[in-house]
Amino acid sequence: MSTDLSSLFISSNDASSAKMFAILSDPEVNQLTVNRFDRVYSSTINGVQLVKDIFPNRDAYMRWLNELIQWTDVPYDDIESVAASIIEGSFDSEKTELRGSIHIATKDLTRGDPSLTVRKQPIEVITLDTMLNQGMMSLDMRNFLELAVRGRSNILISGGSGAGKTTLTRALSWFVDPNHRILVAEDIDELHLGDILPNVVSLTTFRAFDNLGRIVREVKLDDLVKEALRMRADRIWVGETRGSEAYALVKACNSGHDGSVTTIHADSGKGAVKQLITYVMENGLSEEVAREQVAQAFHLVIQISKVKMGRRVITEITELEPVREGTEQRRNTLFVYDFETDSFRQIAGPTKRLVNDWQRNGANLPISQSKNF
């Protein structure tokens, strides 16, 4: 049974802990970072601010960290004595309503206080309509993305840290056929697609350590994607691609798992494709073969970015065509955000190949969006 957020800090007997849980329970706070006991920062849509006078000393900070991890799936009780350099986990839905993940760099790495990063996820339901009303996209873009999911396009969502990639991924999932079996592969549980769809299996990576902190058993992200292929998945969604698992996902996209989605860190749609190719090459493929594999795998790149005052917008939606022009994959830019006028423009319509793919999956594009300019 989960605990109401407010009770986290009301029930705490320690004043410092009460203040920290009060910050975490604030719906406006989307991130919390602690560099050391007297350097606590909270982030909202309006920016980052230093929170003063929380912990009187290091001991108070360490007590709170040990209290915090009790609300997560982290398998430790005492961070001070743990034989691990990095601690990662998610808030446990059976213990708290708080959603998000924690990352702790222990004293092994910092040579001082453990460094904490808490990434919060909104509890309220966020859909494409929510994002439309917040000015993150135009109505045509919203309708286009709905069709892309219904039409089972393979989608690469790109952006910087905190740009809203996970939130957009969750919003897209509302348009997945509920009969489709989705296999989710993540380092830590962040997408929570099982809250939205009934036929979801969520897999997370795993590490077991001995008493000296050495890894004795490990299941990596590329292992999870390979297992998903054996679990009769209709779609495979990878929370974030950042290494060799890219090749396993590309193979899945090229072997009938249409409608797969992943996110990647990049500053542009073009950069996202290059980054994905680099990750695929980590499996020993030549650049030529990696480019060919990626060109066949993904249909769309969605770039999401922070603009003025921390506002998030979709700055570009681009169709990837399965052909190359020189050393670059042909890109058909569909929608862009104009920074000067704070508006969205449709540059072109999707190719007939993409429209035909959608139609085969029962998604029909309105005539107003099907024309090329």
Description:
The structure is a single chain. The chain is α/β, with parallel strands linked by helices and 373 residues long. It has two domains: 116 residues, Beta-Lactamase (2-Layer Sandwich); 243 residues, Rossmann fold, CATH 3.40.50. Helices cover 31% and strands 28% of the residues. A nine-stranded mixed sheet has the order 9-8-12-13-7-14-15-16-17, with helices on both faces. Strands 3-2-1-6-5-4 form a six-stranded antiparallel sheet. It has a two-stranded antiparallel sheet with strand order 10-11. α9 packs across α11 and α10 crosses α11. It is globular, with a radius of gyration of 22 Å.
Shape: globular
Average residue pLDDT: 88
Number of domains: 2
Taking Cα atoms only, what radius of gyration do you get, to the nearest Å? 22 Å
Give the strand content: 25-35%
Broad CATH class of the largest domain = Alpha Beta
Enumerate how many helices there are, as a single number: 13
Order of helices and strands: HHEEEHEEHEHHEHEEEEHEHEHHEEEEHH
Instruction: List segments where confidence is low: pLDDT < 50 over at least 5 consecutive residues.
Output: none
* Share of helix, binned: 25-40%
In CATH, the topology of the largest domain is named Rossmann fold
Spell out the CATH superfamily of the largest domain: P-loop containing nucleotide triphosphate hydrolases
**Mind summarizing the main beta sheet?**
9 strands, mixed
